[in-house]
Amino acid sequence: MSKNLLIILFIIIAVTLSGCTGSGSPKGTPVEVLRFDRANTNLDAKIVDVKFDRDDVRAGEIVTPQLFIANTGSEKITNETVEIEAKLKTLDDPLANIYLKTMSEEKKIRKIDPIYFENEIEPGTVKTVSAKFHTIKEMEKRSLAGTYEINVTLSINGQKIEARVIPIRLYPGEVREITPTPGPSTTPAPVQTTVIPNITQTVIPTPSPTPTPGPVVAATPTGKIIPTRVKSDQFAEPHLDIYAGDEVQWVNYNPDENYEIVEMDKKIPTKILKSRISHVFNTTGDYRFGAYYRNMRGKPSIQTITVRINASNPNN
Known about the structure:
This protein is mainly β.
């Protein structure tokens, strides 16, 4: 047995015996763990533990789950994606709970936009990531305090690895402003917004030079969607010219095949294309994408995307 595997097993056993796995969930309720098939078997990880910042979260407050990620594969992890879904199970309000029983399962689920990280995790080591998201206090003047299931899905280097379904309770009461307790310096957790975390706005000088001397970040999305097709294992549009803030939407015209859309210079995380996926290009520059698929022979199809500043857009 390798030294790295022994280290990981020791960490997992220690966490399990401590009884802290899935802390923040109702006592005695098991945490469901789901594993996904991996295209790259050398790339693997495990969510050793999921902790919440406190046990008495009230409806309307911010929840901060912290994931302890162990690299159990033989390749280095360079980026992580966390997807969160909250499913409503029961409500404390009796009348609201009766109405809840008439709702479809789809309407009981709230999806949070994926949150991206760029932590490097060497094989045999463990690192943590955390993400903040807001809970909802009430709807139609009815309290949303009650029990929920939080589905946390982890992807590493663009490959979906594991999901955990964790029960959590939201309590009634006035929303509090929680001040974090000072502690050791760590990487600050990104706050869930409509823009990918850690992207900062750069002030563009007036007049803007042409061409732009280096990457520039757009202030706001333009709302424009540019569709592009992946057909017969090829990019149907090998080159796109867009403005910063535009959204590119890749559409899969081959329902029998999934694709890994890989930015060749690792400027953005790898994306898995099943039906359709999107990305808002906030930063100017040139991007090169490759389309990878199962049993591929030879080189991938390449698509280039040039992102420029739209001088006529007052938001840039």
